[in-house]
Give the backbone structure.
Amino acid sequence: MSPDSTPSAEAAAAAAPTTRGPASECSGVPSRPTPQPTADAAPTIPATQEATAPFSFTITSRCPHTRARCGCFHTPHGPVHTPRFMPVGTAATVKGVSIPQLVETGAEMVLANTYHLSLQPGEAVVAEAGGLHRFMGWQGPLLTDSGGFQVFSLGAINRIDDDGVVFRSPRDGARITLTPERSMAIQMALGADVAMAFDQCPPYPASEADIAAACRRTHAWLERCVTAHDRPGQALFGIVQGGCYPALRAESARVVAGFDLPGIAVGGVSVGEPVEEMHRIVRQVGPLLPEAKPHYLMGVGSLREMAIAVAQGFDLFDCVLPTRLGRHGTALVGGERWNLRNARFRHDHTPLDPSCSCLACRLHSRAYLHHLIRSEEMLGRSLLSLHNLTTLLRFTTAMGQAIAEGCFAEDFAPWEQDSPAAHTWTLPSAPTG
Amino acid sequence: MSPDSTPSAEAAAAAAPTTRGPASECSGVPSRPTPQPTADAAPTIPATQEATAPFSFTITSRCPHTRARCGCFHTPHGPVHTPRFMPVGTAATVKGVSIPQLVETGAEMVLANTYHLSLQPGEAVVAEAGGLHRFMGWQGPLLTDSGGFQVFSLGAINRIDDDGVVFRSPRDGARITLTPERSMAIQMALGADVAMAFDQCPPYPASEADIAAACRRTHAWLERCVTAHDRPGQALFGIVQGGCYPALRAESARVVAGFDLPGIAVGGVSVGEPVEEMHRIVRQVGPLLPEAKPHYLMGVGSLREMAIAVAQGFDLFDCVLPTRLGRHGTALVGGERWNLRNARFRHDHTPLDPSCSCLACRLHSRAYLHHLIRSEEMLGRSLLSLHNLTTLLRFTTAMGQAIAEGCFAEDFAPWEQDSPAAHTWTLPSAPTG
């Protein structure tokens, strides 16, 4: 079995956080290398911003065996401790989850979608309310995407050219133009802590020529975004594209990094490509990103993929899957997906995930959740969404803790060649005992 | 305008609790009569049970001008302070409301539906879980209805006779028989604090002969329920029927009261009759109920009707309306029903109800709730349900406080002839200033 073998990596990544206690298993193992203190690591890659600036990223610990790091991204609405999953609140609400419940998941930065909000209620209404934080009642850090992903994936596109995108509104058929300047204007009106550059994100598969064209446009648009963006207290992140073509990825990483923005994202993954392609992109691009900036891998939120990406120096993740799965009655438990509608849960009066302390697991049983899902009750969808978010937040928190304690490579990235546990992955088949 | 005039009574009942502060407005008004101390009132109607028994009802204050009283119904899962609205949790969940949120509404006793739970998940599953409290995670008092109302209103009835009711399951068409003994068996398996007798509740209108037959059957079934019911720690309440026929109501009240159960309910209201008929029934039957027992008016939960009923000595209420309205985007504010989908809320950035401290009002604006409802977001339905429940709980709590402070008749029942405010209702038209 190769070190990159997908099922085994999944098992390792999934098993670690759901079975480990708070930090205790991470100490006292003789073979574990001493964690490298932050002070020693800092001189290698000096931070480019002060921790007191409106936006700064402080790396507090590094894994001695992989590129994994944990740190803190400071925003005007508070710190984001990385690595960290970011729940998606498309229409200024994380579906089915109240604000106090969202706080309980451990979420620090929450996403909202520029495309959806510009159509309903419209950015003017949000601005009128005093911005997105006040509009939705979330006082922590917020990030808005650029709207580009939705336009390319959902919209009935009429025309794409170097100026921007023309599409038909799904609400009333109206002709809408989205350009880098318009995306910036909407995002500045929404007033999240982080705005994303307007990029062209082609679906998979696409020819090298098409991806190259999308990259050229993405880079030109990034320049226009930088020029158009002038909201104090809001950071702009650039997005690396390049599809599955290593040369285009390298070139895009170089160009986007050159803008020296407070953060950098990798897009064009999780767009339909095989998962091995995604791993390859993550492994190639991670090391090309400027180390002192937070690295955001867009649209990725499965345990294994987040662990692989953290090992390559990624810090932030988002994905609609935990809430979408929850709404459809599926719970993430022990690295597996459980369909709670299944009859095997009818008489199972144990907690959903005994290792989890979310409301669903603390107060309710599998049999009750099964009953709620069978009865099409809102509460069932809401509790499972809450649990799934909690699971991803717990997982990224556990990775951060492991990095700080020097056991990330062993517990979360045993497949990495430099991991103290790498020997468990070099055999033709993984040992069972 | 007559003292019973519906619109004016509504206005008075609605205005009082939403504009009054906590107790302060209730003191220092010279014309207000001194509240009659509980000790003075007690000898008139001695309590039949000790406050320390598993089920007992203690009257703590009485209104000197109406039959209103406030008290405490003690159950094995804690006290229920009356008068009090009881949220309906049909399928062992108050739709869209989590258990911590339900606690925040001020709810003390919660309903669940025997009919629904016997079909899904089945009472055996609930019993297996250790009963309804543990199954749904609600540790406060619970009450289950008898299933009769649903059978008569929802079910495809095949046959009703003196034995019971045969109907087709809406799930799989199976032939199901519900009898007093079966209803008791299900409710004992569910294990709520209060079980309701299996009654026949005819829809409105019905002939006097039909109602008389339903009453005879209800009384015979009550006797069988009493015989069949033997779960310690669970109280059985009888139900008065009689439709809109005063003689039948009086006879039913006499017969049901004769069983001397820990509580007594009035059913067969809110079944399609004009609201004036309901008021008439409430005014006739209230004084006929045994004073020392808690009085439960089934299926009623509008502000005006609860105020009228409290003035006639009713203590407990339930209704699906607050959650059903909430799910459909309607909020109860200041005695009115507001459709939050309405465009007039689009730019309204004020709190839903500034006098309310529920999550929806504390954290969100009308514009945000409008946006959630327009976007068909679960959170909108859930927040409005929460607000509506909070409003009814607040209203019944405010009535209890007014009773304790001696200002109930003035603030909540000015139309009652003995109210200090009765003169405001005796003019041909209500004064405007």
Observations:
- The CA atoms of residues 84 and 397 of chain B lie 7 Å apart.
